[in-house]
Predict the structure.
Amino acid sequence: MNQKKILTISVTILFVVFLVYIFRDISAAEFLNAFKMFSFKYIFWIVALYYFTMYLRGIRWKALLMDNPKYSNWHLGAVFIVGSMLNSFLPARAGDIYRAYYLGENKNEKKMKVFGSIILERTLDGISVFFILLFAVLVYCKNNPVILSSIYFFGFVFIGSMIAFYLIFKFNKIDFVCKKIELLLNKIKLEKLSKIVESLNRHANSFMEGFEVLDSVKLSLKAVISSAAIWGIECYVAYLIIASFNLSLPFSASLFVISLISFSAMLPSSSIFFGPYQAAYLIALGIYGVKKSSILAVSLVHPIMLIILLTVVGLYYLYKFNFSLDKIKEERNV
C-alpha cells in the first residue's frame, strides 16, 4: 500500500472518530425527528439551479479552451458532470483524468493541454471560494484573528498559484531549459535520460498550452464572471437545502457552508458521504447555534442529494460517450 493510500485512509479514520465523538450524544429519536423536518418545497429550484451550474461550468470551460468552436457549452458541461460523478466515487481525482482523456480522444486535442485547462479551472474555483469565505468572515467574524489568518493563507495559495501559472506561461523557459539538459545528457552518453527529458519537455509544453487563455483579457474575464456565477448559485442551493429543514438562518450560513465544504474536500478523505461535509457543516452552522442533530441531518442530505443528481445524469452521459476508464489505463500503460 503506497503512502498516499495510507494518508487517505488515516485522514478518513480521523474524520470518522472525530465525528462519532462529536455526535455521540444524539439519540436515534432526535436524529430521526431532525430528518422529518425536511420538506420538498424547494426541490424543483435545488435541482434546476444545480444542473444550471453544470451548464455554466461548460461555458467557463469553453472560455478556458479559448472559445474554440469545436467545443459546445452543453457537451463540455456533460463531460464535467461525468468527471464530477467519477470524482465522487473514485480516488485520485479520476474524474479529472477522465475528462482530459475523453476530450483529447473525442476532439483530437492534446490531453495535457486539456488537463492544464482543468487545473486552471480548479484554481479559479479556489479563488472564488476564497472570496466567498473572506466576505463572510469580514462581515460576521472579523474579530477572530485565527480564522482570518487561515483564510489569508488559503487566499495566498490560490491567488499565488494563479500568478505563478501566469508568469510560467508568459515567460515559458521550459523548452530552453530542457534542451540544455538534453544536450548535456547526450554529451555524457546518457541517451535514455535524454529521451525522458525530451518526453517531459513535450508534455510540459502541452500542459502550458492549457493556460493560453491567460493571454486573453476577454476570455479570462468571461471565465472569472462564470466562476462567480457558479459559486453564487452553489451558495443559494445550499441555502435552499438548509431552509428545507425549516432552519431560519441568514444567507451568510450558506456562504460558510459552501466555502468550508470546498476547502475540507481538498483533504484526502476516501468517504463521499461521511467526513468533510459533516465537519464543514459542524463548524459553519455551529456559528449560528444550530442543534447537532439538525446539523447531522442537513450534512447528510446535502451530499447525498447532489450525488444522486450527478449520478442520474452522469451515468447517462458515461454510457452515451462510450469511453471507459479501461481505455485510459491501456493508453497509460503503453
In short: The mean pLDDT is 82. Residues 45 and 237 are 8 Å apart (CA to CA). Residues 111-140 form the longest helix (30 residues). The chain has one domain: 52-66+75-332.
